[in-house]
Amino acid sequence: MVAIPYICFYILSISSIPYVSRLHLVQSVEAMEKSLYLAALFLIFWGWGLVGYDTNAYYSMYYAVPYLSHFDISAYEREYLFWLWCSIFRTLHFSYVDFRFVSSVVDIIVLFIFFSRFLDKKYFPIAFMFYLLYGGMYYELEAIRNAKAISCYLISLIYFSRKKYIRFILWNVAAFYFHISIIPLPLFTILYPLFLRRRLILCIFIIGCIFSISGIGLSFLFARFGESIPVVGFLIVRYVKSTYANAHGLTIGFLERFLSFIIIYKFQKRLIRDYKNTKVFISLFYVYIFFCFYFIDFKIILERIAAMFKISYWICFPLIFSYLKKKDKNIFFVILILYGGLKIFEQYNLDVYAFKYSLLK
Predict the structure, then answer these.
(1) φ and ψ at residue 223, rounded to 5 degrees
(2) What is the pLDDT of residue 181?
(3) Minimal CA–CA distance to 20: which of 333, 336, 313, 328?
(4) What is the pTM of this model?
(5) CA distances from 130 to 59, 96, 140, 155 (A)
(6) Buried b (16+ CB within 10 A) or exposed e, 330-353
C-alpha cells in the first residue's frame, strides 16, 4: 500500500506531541524539544524524498538552470527568484535532492520564526501538526516554488503585524517572483477588516453552503472575464477550459470546513480580544472557506489559490485548543487524529506518491 510510509510518519508525529499523553500545555522548553523533533522527523522522512506529480518536472528543470556565471534573468518569463535560487545551488554543485533538502530546511526555519511571532512556544508542536495537515506537507513535497513564495509571505506577515508596511510590500514582491499565485494572500491581508463583520460573514457562509452542497460554482465568471485579470488571467482561462476544472461535490472536506467555520466563528471575539494579531488569520480563514464553497467546480482554485489560505489553521486552532477544557481537548485530539489519518491516506495512497527515498539509492 503506497500510503504506508505516510501513515507511519503521521503516527510517529502524533505520538510525539506531549498533549496526546497528558493533555495539558507543557513548559516552553519541552514544547520546543518536541517541535524540533517533529521538524527533524519531517526532514528525515521527506527532505530527501522524491515523490509527487511534479518531481520529474522539477528534477529536469533544476539541472537545466545554468550556473550563476551564465545565469540570464531575461531568459525566464516570470518567477525569476526561484530560478536564481536554483542557480545558486547549481553553482554550489548541489544535487537536486540536496537542493530539495536545504530548501525544506529554510522553509522550516522560516516557519519557526513565524510561529515565534504569533504563538507562545508551548503551542508549537500542535501548530506544526496543523502545518503538516493543512498545506505544509503538500507544498514541501509537490510545490517547491509555492513553498518559497509562502515562506516570503510568512515573513511579510511579521512586518505587517508590526506596521512596517514597506517591508511587508517588499517581501511580497519577493514572494511574487517565486510564484505568481501568491498575489491573493497579501491582497486579502490588506483587506482583512472587510472579512470580520460577523453578520455579513454568516450570510455569505450560509449561501456558500448551498452552492457547495448543490455543486454550483462560479468558475463561469472566470471563463467570461478571466482574460481581463492582470498577470494571471491567461492561466486562469486555460485552467477553466481544461478538464482540470472539474466538480468536487459534497465530501468529508465539506463537513470539515463547515465545522471549522462554526468553531472559528464561535471563538472569533475571544481570539481577537486575547490575541489582536489573530484578526488577519481569522479573516484569511473566512476567505479560504468562501473560495472552497463558491468555486467548488474549479479545482485549480481550490488546490493552488484557496490552499494557501490554510495558513490560518496554523495559528487559530492551536490558540483555540488552549481555551478547551480537558474533556473537550480529548474530543479535539480524537477528531484531529482520525481526520488527519484519513486525509493523509486519501491524498497520498496513489502510485505517484510511491515512496522513493534518495538516501537509500
Answers:
(1) -60, -35
(2) 86
(3) 333
(4) 0.88
(5) 28, 28, 14, 19
(6) eebbeebbebbbebbbeebeeeeb
